[in-house]
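Sequence and fold
=================
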Amino acid sequence: MVRIWAPVIIALSMLGIAAQVIAEEAGADETEPAAEEPAVGRAYHVDEYTQAAILRYPGLKAAAADIDAAQARLREAKISPFMQFEGRATLVVAPGARGTATFSPDPQIPWGNRWGPGGEVGIEGGIPIYTFGKYRAGKKAAAAGITASEYERDRTLARVVFDVRRAYFGTQLSLDLQAMISEGKDKLRKAVDKLDARLKADDPRVRQTDYWRLVSALSEIESRESEALRLEASARAALGILSGLKPTIVPECPLEALQSDVIELSEQVDRALANRPEILQLEAAQSARDANLIVKRAGYLPYILLALRASFARTPGITDIQNPFVIDRGNFAGAYAGLLAHWKLDFGGTHARVKAAKAEIESLKAKTEEAEQGIEIEVTALYEALQDAKRRLASWTRSEKETRKWFVSAGQGYEVGTTTAMELVDSIEAYFSARAKRLTATAEYNLAIAGLEKATNIPLLAPKGWRPLDCEE
């Protein structure tokens, strides 16, 4: 009887444990109170759970905030270079000083004179006229930051959509497994009770070993029912935490294979390489690295600025010398404007920085190639998993139909005494094994489609296409 439940165990490890992990991770990240509870008994389809999760998932809100921050950095890159001015205001106390432009009775520092207040205000700075590419490169790097943040949001979106679908199909699989287990358990319990009564009546046509065999099979079914309940609880918890829709109820529909026309593997790989957020993020990073190289190279050249400066100082206790050729530190006014070339003469350091920028570009190119190889491997594995599940689904669907005939026949025969307990157990084993494997293959097929959609970042079904065709609320 243990091999009957091999597909159930596989399903639990594939879906139940995964859903439990999702629930724990989502619960750790949850920062908001749960959404308002809908009316009790309301069932939601997978696309409805998905939409609810998208609206409330903290990771997507964080991604939106990151985009806002990147947009602010772009505005800074556009405006800040033209706002490089400094203002200064100084309030001082200084000793008084008397005299004219040619004579003063006071020493150079008249400490003994009466001290009084004074002050100075000034502004200086420059407007860039030509930066040898630094300004354009700065804007390009900031724009690449926005693009990278947007693709990070797409990555998060694809992940949460997949997690919701995985939890939803886990819930469906658990319910179907429970229905299957309930049917087999009822049949076996009736057989155990009947066989027990015949043993107590000393019926010579039954054996004690037949009773033990049936009791063992019943115990095995009851233990697997507990595992199916655990799968349901963890999957429902994941749905509830991700979507906020509670109580977590799914339509009472049998688990069915999704209807999707999946194109050839080569086209799936091409789609993934063209649309996968990770690749597009690396392209944005490449743009930023190219801009950084321009900035580093421009370090050999100066900034050409329109320089401006104005200042005014007044100290009443110091005689104001009205002579432009005499420096009066307490009373003066001045302004100038002109062209200014400003650069650092750290050519050795600039050379090292340019070399580092080139190495970063080469590193990023290699990482992009590595990511493309990884994506191709991932898409290929998902595509082959889909084809495998499709073949197994067809095979176990056919086997389920045939073994059910055997199961019904054996059950009827056992009722009238023409079938032995061993034959009944064999028929149960064959039928429920085929049925469990068909359910598992169906769930794996649906998950492979969901995984392939996540891996290519291209919708393979319409939002409502994830619902069973003949299932309504």
About this structure: Residues 2-95+116-319+330-466 form a domain with the Outer membrane efflux proteins (OEP) fold (CATH 1.20.1600.10). Confidence is low (pLDDT under 50) at residues 1-40. Residues 275 and 457 are 6 Å apart (CA to CA).
